[in-house]
């Protein structure tokens, strides 16, 4: 029995989902397989549109404005810093690091540890960009005995494996994150963690 | 009602905004009533008549479930399909059937009826809501038909004298003014919950724990050690059904 978890390391929703997800994994004692996915960075909604702007335009602005407020509320609940929400950066190197870590011994511990440390550092520093040299390699050096292995991975099979994974995600309907896949069912968002906990427990009992 | 209506203010500590055509509001219904019962507090239920095509495109299915007409993008379709599948699995856990809708329903009439039922008391409104949701989501209820809606009101214990005239006059006006004010306040979806003590509002049933926490903290003023830390967003996994005893 395994829970598949799909994350884009730059997604602030992933950042907020990590405490609950790691708790679930500890509690449910089930194996997890972590996969990278790619989502668009959040766009700054800008100033409020005029009252005579189209209803759809206003609707989208209200939603985007609310989304930030909700995110900041729950970042506060978790006591997690969340700065410069609308920065745009490429998370491909972090995604490849995730793929590489998932092939290492003790991947079950390493991957969540990597994601927690990476995202906390990222959202605490408004200028961080998930840069390979500044952010990712130092973290891999802290976490693994063989950080050089990642350098070869990213210059050899890493890029192709990442693209293959992203294509596989699309085929599964994994378009927004964080996404969880359990017993062929897709669950998008950390809101599903109580149900997933229950389903995993039921599944353990019936095994 | 006129200009006095404020979408974020009420005598109740919590305002609940729903639309009968929203599957997410449907699966939130019993959870919301359960919270209201647990806290021993009546919530102020209000209708939001969503203008779905304005932000999510429109579509109509034929009787076999095949798309008859649509102006939705691939991404909008993907979002809509996931939303229904997601609501369906939670509805099933509550003992309800949730079938995909064949069209985007106009819920103005049934929302005017909701206002009518509300005037006749919370018990009447609760019964009415319980009578509308399950059959509507089994595709057994035409909520655009005034005879059907009037029958539901009557079955819920409402006095229906004057209801048809109310729809055509004051009820319609009240509903339309209310909808404009709700949208202008920034409320864009359902279910939405307003904690009137703080003015904070949240979209989605995953915030019910947060609403409970806010009410206990700011309205009931319970000691912090009794309430515990502020909760995360989460869909409750289990809920008992809240259908009326007579069933629909």
Q: Can you put this structure into words, describing what you see?
A:
The complex is a heterodimer of chains A (207) and B (248). Chain A folds into two domains: 2-39 and 88-206, Glutaredoxin (3-Layer(aba) Sandwich), CATH 3.40.30; 42-87, no CATH class. Chain A has eight helices and four strands. Chain A starts with a strand and ends with a helix. Chain A is globular, with a radius of gyration of 18 Å. In chain A, helix 1 (12-28) runs parallel beside helix 8. Chain A is an alpha+beta fold and 207 residues long. In chain A, strand 1, helix 1 and strand 2 form a beta-alpha-beta unit. The model of chain A has no long low-confidence stretch (mean pLDDT 95). Chain A has a four-stranded mixed sheet, sandwiched between helices. The longest helix of chain A is centred in the first third of the chain and has 23 residues, at 55-77. Chain B has helices spanning 23-39, 53-56, 74-93, 108-119, 122-137, 146-155, 163-168, 170-184, 208-219, 224-227, and strands spanning 14-18, 44-47, 59-61, 67-70, 192-195, 200-203. In chain B, a hairpin with a 4-residue loop joins strand 5 (192-195) and strand 6 (200-203). Chain B has 248 residues and is an alpha+beta fold. The model of chain B has no long low-confidence stretch (mean pLDDT 91). Chain B has a domain at 2-107 and 176-227: Glutaredoxin (3-Layer(aba) Sandwich), CATH 3.40.30. Chain B has a four-stranded mixed sheet with strand order 2-1-5-6. In chain B, strands 3-4 form a two-stranded antiparallel sheet. Chain B has ten helices and six strands. In chain B, helix 1 (23-39) packs across helix 3 (74-93). The chains are: A alpha+beta (207), B alpha+beta (248). The A-B interface holds A 16, 19-20, 51, 54-56, 58-60, 62-63, 65-66, 70, 73-74, 76-78, 173, 175, 185-195, 197-198 and B 51, 54-55, 75, 78, 82, 86, 89-90, 183-184, 186-189, 200, 202-204, 206, 210, 229-238.
């Amino acid at each position: 029995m395994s829970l598949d978890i799909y994350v884009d390391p730059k997604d602030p929703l992933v950042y907020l989902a990590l405490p609950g997800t790691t708790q679930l994994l500890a509690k449910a004692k089930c194996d997890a397989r972590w996969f990278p996915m790619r989502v668009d960075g959040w766009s700054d909604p800008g100033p409020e549109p005029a009252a005579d702007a189209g209803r759809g335009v206003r609707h989208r602005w209200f939603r985007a404005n609310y989304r930030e407020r909700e995110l900041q509320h729950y970042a506060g609940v978790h006591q997690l810093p969340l700065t410069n929400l609308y920065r745009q950066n490429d998370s491909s190197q972090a995604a490849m690091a995730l793929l590489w870590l998932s092939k290492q011994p003790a991947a079950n511990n390493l991957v969540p540890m990597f994601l927690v440390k990476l995202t906390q550092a990222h959202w605490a520093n408004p200028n961080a960009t998930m840069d390979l040299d500044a952010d990712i390699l130092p973290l891999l050096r802290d976490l693994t005995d063989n950080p050089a292995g990642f350098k070869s991975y990213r210059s050899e099979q890493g890029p192709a494996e990442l693209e293959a994974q992203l294509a596989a995600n699309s085929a599964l309907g994994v378009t927004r994150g964080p996404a969880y896949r359990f017993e062929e069912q897709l669950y998008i968002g950390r809101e599903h963690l109580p149900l997933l906990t229950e389903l995993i427990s039921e599944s353990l009992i019936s095994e | 009602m006129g200009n006095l209506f404020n979408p974020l203010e009420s005598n109740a500590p919590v305002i609940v905004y729903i639309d009968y055509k929203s599957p997410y509001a449907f699966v939130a219904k019993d959870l919301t009533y359960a919270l209201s019962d647990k806290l021993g507090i009546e919530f102020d239920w209000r209708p939001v008549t969503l203008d779905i095509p304005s932000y999510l495109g429109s579509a109509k299915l034929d009787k076999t479930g095949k798309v008859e007409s649509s102006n939705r993008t691939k991404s909008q379709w993907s979002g809509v399909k996931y939303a229904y599948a997601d609501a369906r699995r939670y509805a099933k856990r509550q003992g309800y059937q949730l079938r995909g809708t064949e069209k985007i329903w106009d819920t103005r009439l049934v929302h005017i009826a909701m206002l009518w039922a509300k005037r006749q008391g919370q018990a009447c409104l609760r019964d009415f809501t319980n009578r509308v949701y399950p059959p509507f989501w089994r595709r057994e209820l035409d909520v655009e038909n005034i005879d059907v809606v009037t029958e539901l009101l009557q079955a819920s214990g409402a006095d229906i004298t004057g209801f048809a005239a109310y729809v055509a006059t004051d009820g319609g006006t009240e509903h339309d003014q209310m909808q404009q004010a709700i949208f202008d306040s920034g409320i864009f979806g359902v279910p939405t919950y307003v904690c009137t003590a703080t003015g904070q509002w949240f979209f989605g049933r995953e915030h019910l724990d947060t609403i409970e926490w806010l009410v206990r903290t700011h309205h009931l003023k319970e000691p912090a050690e009794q309430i515990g830390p502020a909760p995360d967003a989460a869909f409750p996994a289990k809920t008992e059904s809240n259908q009326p005893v007579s069933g629909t």
